[in-house]
What does this fold into?
Amino acid sequence: MIITKPCVVTLTWVLSDGQNYHLDALEEPTEFYFGGEDLLPKVEEALEGQEAGFETHLHLEPEHAFGEYDSQLVCFEDRRLFPEGVEPGMRFEGLPPGSATPDMPADTIYTVTEVYPSHVVLDGNHPLAGMALRLALTIRDVREATPEEIDAGSVGSGLVSVLDIAPTGSPLH
It folds into this structure.
């Protein structure tokens, strides 16, 4: 089957930064919805019209991956607003109630980057923001999307999971 919207592609990949430092390997074939939000637009562009067995190497500049780093998404919050065991690498959806910076986006995932006795540093940037990425990927399978997948615009996993990368070195998926 040729990859066209909408369908489901099964991929494996190796992800590195712009200097070829290994970041992640998706060795177990994983399904992604093609034509929705599961894949980055440049990845979809490279896969369109291809079929199982196709391999490619992509170089993605930040604007085609997870955007430029935005220092305006870093804030300092009172330590008392966080649980006792807060530590770098923990992630929170939105800022805690009582936040000193209510103008920050509420629907953002914030990563704790530093913890001090008086405050906690939070970063709302994606952990890969500002980074050029190299992605070596292989199409393992292509199938028609189910009506449920088409309605959802996702198979429930996918490259979007890279949005959930933990900056502490844990896997990207």
